[in-house]
Amino acid sequence: MLDYDVLKQQFDDSTESTSPTTPPESLEALNFDDEQQPKAQGLTGSRLRSYAFAVLTRREYSKAELIEKLALYAMDRDEVLKLVDELATQNYQSDQRVAEMMLSSQKRKGKGPNRIKLALKSKKIDSSLIQEELKETDWNEQAYQLKVKKFGLTVEKEAKLKAKQIRFLMYRGFEMEAIIKAITRQEHDI
After folding, report:
1. What are the sequence ranges of the domains in the chain?
2. What phi, psi does 20 have (nearest 5°)?
3. Where are the stretches annotated Disordered (predicted)?
């Protein structure tokens, strides 16, 4: 970690030697004791690697997200690309893990396959990574449970109320086939 008191002392020494005409008021404007510490710019080598590990310990990032995050602080984008590839080969970063976590998170939130694929696309993750899990999920049951939670067990006869349920489930990302089965399913149907 950086010791800001030592840096301040070194900075003060270097400014005195390079520009003796600098007024003391301008040095007071440089406040190193603020809550907001200056962000490190131009990281390379082991410092960039350490920052990458620090970022990855907080949460999982997709490859594209990690590249963008590290590129903000790195000197060389090529070094970032090499580092992220190395982290991916060593399994510190995995798009597969991120995709699986997003799938389970989105399913818990009541999202359908289309919304999940859209969320993956926004994070620049290929949806083929979780294609098997998407196929294995019973989307008809998911849509039905969501319909019951929002609208109850009754099967609506009125077109306006059916349309409202259809719009709700479509917005949540379910396919039309699953939606129709969910809104027409009777309580005792299995």
Report:
1. 1-31, 45-89, 95-136, 139-184
2. -70, -10
3. 8-43
